[in-house]
Design a protein that fits this description.
heterodimer; A: about 150 residues; mainly alpha; 6 helices; elongated; B: about 325 residues; alpha/beta; 6-stranded mixed sheet; 4-stranded antiparallel sheet; 14 strands
Chain lengths: ~150, ~325
């Protein structure tokens, strides 16, 4: 697990940990069921307060990224859990929104966008099959957006 | 008595010569590190001496690891001390330190002692007086860890340490706290030590507790206000704490809930622990110890007056 904290980012330390661990889980870098370092070991290694790491883990747990088992520690939650799925869909929507904003500035039309998306999907298919396996329902919300 | 608290002071008053601790109340939950911040002479060491039962108190009560202080002799075994003055005989070799201290502790772990000396690069044949400041602190921590102390009290451990040694000490504290039954009270006037590792913070000034709570709560409850030369002249409803005025402007600490009342031209920002410590310690460099309490609502309590309702425990003690 990789956590790199910035003192000048203007983002609270607990939020930085939450974002980075959350991103590692969504990207699959931290596999489902794998153990996270304990709150106290993480605090020691990052040289930050126990309260800070406790808050980061509490928020990760509240958002469904991890589950905490009393006396055993924290584990990466199952990827197919409802909350995790929402996180992924949210990430897809955010990425799509960024793409749409850029497309609007570039003056791309809907057809051209779909062409790009199909192109990317085809390219992805050759590298890793699971990406095109099924489309999350969250994508339908993008379809209604007008350019 | 709560067993979830590392220690608690309630309404503690103590007089040492001309210095007085007044109505000192704060507590630390077990498993955390508290920074105890104050200027030189604010009362940090006196408070710690009260906590350790080394200084008699006139009012209030103190609890450490679930025992009332002065507690049973066994309580001493659970407390590790790192004091700003060495308490070890200067001519002892480090191997003799073990032989001298071992009889006082039922849980002394000689293997651990020798292992830690080795890990910290301390030579068992060296004499206490030949150790550098950083090495002496490592030795005192080694002693505390060797008798399995559950509460570590460090009085100004970082004064005189270089940045690398201070960072190393932060690491040792983090290591110690991986056991959630361990707690640390850490007095300092160097606030940067606590910006990251501190869970709780207590600010003391002139023998009185100014603020205590989690570090984030404390930082959230104050703001730094900066304005031009003509700003912040007697603002209504806002107490300026430790105001420092120069020909170019003014800087002062204010309470967050009062900050909204300030003029829009004034810059209002979240403070650092250092700024808190500086402003709470008094206005500017010409601060003298005998000066009157902060302006505003501060009513000087009569030290002989009956304790206020904030600590009803005292009356129950008198009845029993």
């Amino acid at each position: 697990m990789r956590v790199v904290l910035s003192n000048t980012a203007g983002v609270p330390l607990y939020e930085q940990i939450k974002q980075q661990v959350g991103a590692a889980i969504l990207s699959g870098e931290l596999a489902e069921g794998s153990a996270l370092p304990s709150i106290r070991v993480l605090a020691r290694d990052l040289r930050i307060s126990v309260i800070t790491t406790t808050r980061a883990y509490a928020e990760l747990a509240a958002e469904g990224f991890i589950t905490t088992v009393a006396g055993k520690g924290a584990f990466v939650a199952a990827l197919d859990s409802q909350l995790m799925r929402e996180q992924l869909v949210r990430q897809v929507e955010a990425g799509m929104q960024t793409a749409l904003d850029a497309a609007r500035r570039a003056g791309l039309h809907r057809d051209q966008l779909i062409e790009i998306l199909d192109g990317l999907l085809d390219a992805g298919q050759q590298e890793a099959a699971p990406v095109t396996g099924q489309r999350p329902e969250g994508l339908t919300t993008v379809r209604g957006a007008s350019l | 008595m709560s067993t979830d608290l590392a220690f608690a002071l309630r309404g503690v008053g103590a007089a040492v010569g001309s210095f007085t601790l007044r109505d000192v109340s704060f507590e630390l939950p077990m498993g955390y590190v508290m920074g105890f911040i104050g200027a030189n002479g604010a009362g940090k060491t006196t408070t710690i001496r009260c906590l350790l039962g080394m200084q008699p108190i006139q009012t209030g009560q103190i609890e450490v690891l679930g025992h009332r202080v002065p507690g049973p002799a066994a309580l001493r075994q659970d407390i590790g001390m790192v004091l700003d003055h060495g308490y070890l005989v200067r001519d002892w070799r480090l191997s003799q330190v073990e032989r001298a201290l071992r009889p006082f502790y039922d849980t002394w772990d000689g293997t651990r002692y020798r292992h830690l000396l080795d890990e910290f690069g301390l030579d068992p044949r060296a004499k206490v007086k030949d150790l550098s400041r950083g090495m002496t602190i490592k030795l005192m921590i080694t002693v505390a860890l060797s008798h399995h102390a559950r509460l570590l009290i460090l009085d100004e451990p970082t004064s005189g340490l270089d940045p690398a040694a201070r960072n190393e000490l932060s690491g040792m504290i983090g290591d110690y706290l991986t056991d959630e039954g361990h707690s640390v009270l850490f007095s300092t006037h160097i606030t940067s030590d606590l910006e990251r590792i501190g869970d709780y913070v207590t600010l003391i000034h002139d023998g009185r507790i100014v603020s205590t709570g989690t570090k984030d709560e404390i930082l959230d409850s104050y703001r730094i206000a900066r304005g031009g030369p003509d700003d912040l002249r007697d603002p209504v409803g806002v107490e300026l704490i430790g105001a420092r005025r120069t020909p170019f402007g003014i800087e002062a600490l204010v309470r967050t809930d009062e900050a909204d009342l300030l003029d829009e031209a004034v810059v209002v920002e979240a403070p650092t622990l250092e700024e808190l410590a500086v402003h709470i310690a008094g206005p500017g460099p010409r601060h003298t110890p005998g000066r009157a309490p902060e302006s505003g609502s501060d009513q000087a309590p009569d030290r002989d007056a009956a304790p206020r309702q904030a600590h009803p425990t005292i009356t129950t003690r008198r009845i029993s």
